[in-house]
């Protein structure tokens, strides 16, 4: 998984924690590259790392981690590799983003929405999952889009492909997360009250599944819950699970990554 678990990345991220916040750009500034693949197309660097981007029409430029991998260039929107960065956070944190860009982080719903809500461009989401036994799997979705805050950052995904299964549409009938708004411990958009976990009924999916996600009664995908260490990673509703990959007893992944890229590459104009 490349530098995903690298200590050098950790140290880098610790010194860059403050600069991970959004930066205000000047009035009328139309911004720089709108995403990582744009950077790779017009000024190839070849190296994964932190770059400044500014989605079209978005008022701020901000830093994001660009994965310049063998299967394309991607803007990373989520990464989990351990339990040091807490993902049990409220709406404002999920809106604005948190963590360390070169390490575990959530880019922020406002930024993800700004990148994907423009209907003139189609986006692809890739979800990478790693287990504790040396295995991995992935899921890709065409037409990934996150609405703005007025929609509670509603999730839209199109055609699925991959090896992990389509957990967003659910391992079980009737719990499709596609089309649902985001929920956090202080915002309930999960579509259930009560929400059932076996014989146990709770008011919100986040009470058991933790973190923040596009929960829908509560669904089969949840990657922002609590990270669980090897040997204690099976059976927790709260873990990083993708039930079409490993289930039905929830298996909490060792590491996860979510990243996006335009479905059609940018064209160089000569
Ligand atoms: Ca609820």
Automatic annotation (TrEMBL):
One of its GO terms (cellular component) is extracellular space. It comes from the Eukaryota. Residues 1-20 form the signal peptide. Gene3D superfamilies: Gamma Fibrinogen, chain A, domain 1. Keywords: Disulfide bond, Signal. Residues 27-264 form the Fibrinogen C-terminal domain. The keyword Signal applies. The keyword Transport does not apply. Pfam families: Fibrinogen_C. GO terms for biological process: negative regulation of T cell activation; regulation of immune response. This is Fibrinogen-like protein 1. It comes from Oryzias melastigma.
